[in-house]
Write a structure and sequence with these properties.
Layout (H helix, E strand, L loop, with lengths): L4 H56 L3 H67 L1
Length: 131
C-alpha cells in the first residue's frame, strides 16, 4: 500500500482536493445561513410594521381589545424571531465544529500519507544502497 510513490502522490492530491472541497462547502453553508438570518429579520420587520400599523388604527378607533391582540401578536413574532435566530446560531456552531473536525481529519490523513511517502522513499534508498 505505502510502497507505490505514484499512489502516495495520488492519495495526497486526493486529500488536498477533499480539504479544498470541504472549505468550499463550509463557505457555502455559512453564506446560506447568513441569507436565512437576513430573510428572517426582514420578514419579522415587515410583519411587525404591519401589526404596528394595525395596532395604531385600532387605538385610533379606541378598540383596546384589538390593540392588545396586535401587541400580543407582535410579542409572538419577536419570540419566534429569537427562537429562529437561536436555531440558526446553533446550526452555525454545529457546522463550524463539524467543518473543523473534518478539516483536522483531512490534515491528519495528509500527514500520514506524507509519512508513508517519506518511509517509502527511505526504504527505496536503503534498498538501492543494499543492492
Amino acid at each position: 500500500y505505502g510502497g507505490s510513490s505514484t499512489f502516495c502522490h495520488f492519495s495526497l492530491a486526493m486529500a488536498e482536493q477533499c480539504l479544498r472541497g470541504e472549505e468550499l462547502r463550509a463557505r457555502h453553508q455559512a453564506a446560506l445561513l447568513k441569507l436565512r438570518k437576513k430573510a428572517l429579520r426582514e420578514k419579522a420587520r415587515a410583519e411587525l410594521a404591519w401589526l404596528g400599523h394595525q395596532k395604531r388604527c385600532l387605538e385610533n378607533l379606541q378598540d383596546s381589545k384589538g390593540a392588545s391582540a396586535m401587541a400580543a401578536k407582535q410579542c409572538k413574532i419577536l419570540m419566534e424571531l429569537k427562537q429562529e435566530q437561536a436555531e440558526i446560531q446553533h446550526l452555525q456552531n454545529i457546522y463550524r465544529a463539524a467543518h473543523q473536525e473534518r478539516k483536522l481529519l483531512l490534515k491528519q490523513q495528509r500527514g500520514i500519507l506524507m509519512m508513508r511517502h517519506s518511509t517509502a522513499q527511505l526504504q527505496e534508498k536503503l534498498h538501492n544502497l543494499a543492492g
